[in-house]
Design goal:
The protein has 271 residues and is α+β, with helices and mostly antiparallel strands. It contains eight helices and eight strands.
Length: 271
């Protein structure tokens, strides 16, 4: 058994065992290849992956209707995922209370001006709890102060319109009703309730007029021939007034603060 035949068999078995394949080596090679492909993928997708992670964080912490969420799309040159409430700048809707048209009429009232059942200075988060998620949104900045506009599609005396709420920081400072298709609107149906509540039913024949109450709060009615807008402007908080006056009161001089604000708004609206 220890002869030449046994030695031949032993040598053959040794040669066979030395050429057997080790599966652990295959797993190591596959792991290295997978790791290389993963690194390669991260390198090429980092420009998109990191912003998506940041957006997910903003959505989780601040919400998808927050100023931070909308500003992310502006900063990354992306389209706003929400509908815009207005096509022009937010500043122009405040501007109308600082520079009236020449043909405007002016009235005073003893009745406190109110915007429906939503009190001025209401917190933004509380409004969302009351009204639900908005159907449109715009954001801007007046200097270092954030401004947000949210809107809801509603009906008023069977008239389709959009109710809009302007926030300076987190507080409600101006409301607006916007009737988009005046071909289906009887102008008297809008003016008569205003006159009845604030002017004792006085007849008003004007496409642009203002009503001011004893606290300085104002209403502006405007019919531009295409749509009708009724704005309610709050002037009952000194801190809010100071911020807005810094932007709009100098319009008659050089208006640089308003110009700077509009430039910023143009950038914000270029989603």
């Amino acid at each position: 058994m220890n002869g030449p035949l046994f030695n031949y068999i032993l040598l053959a078995r040794t040669a066979k065992d030395s050429t057997s394949f080790d599966p652990s080596m295959l797993y190591l090679i596959l792991a290295l290849v997978g790791l290389f492909l993963l690194v390669l993928l991260l390198v090429f997708t980092r420009a998109r992956l990191l912003p998506l992670i940041k957006l997910g964080y903003i959505n989780l912490v601040y919400g998808r209707f927050s100023f931070e969420f909308l500003e992310f799309f502006k900063d990354n040159n992306l389209r706003n995922p929400h509908n815009n409430c207005i096509k022009d700048e937010i500043s122009m809707h405040f501007y109308t209370f600082y520079k009236a048209r020449r043909d405007a009429l002016f009235f005073t009232t003893e009745t406190k001006i109110e915007f429906g059942d939503i009190p001025f200075l209401m917190n933004y988060k509380k409004l969302i709890k009351v009204k639900g998620e908005p159907e449109c949104i715009n954001v801007s900045k007046f200097g270092n102060h954030r401004v947000k506009l949210v809107g809801f599609n509603e009906t008023l005396q069977n008239l389709k319109m959009k109710s809009m709420f302007y926030f300076l920081g987190e507080v409600f400072v101006m409301g607006e009703y916007h009737f988009m298709d005046i071909s289906k609107v009887r102008i008297a149906d809008i003016i008569s309730p205003l006159s009845g509540k604030y002017l004792k039913g006085q007849t008003i024949e004007s496409d642009n007029f203002y009503i001011t109450d004893p606290q300085g709060d104002k209403i502006n009615y405007e019919n531009n021939g295409f749509s009708i807008t009724v704005r309610y402007y709050f002037r009952g908080d000194a801190a809010v007034n100071q911020i807005l006056d810094q932007v709009f009161s100098g319009v008659g001089d050089n208006g640089q603060a308003l110009i700077d604000t509009m430039k910023h708004e143009e950038l914000l609206n270029r989603f």
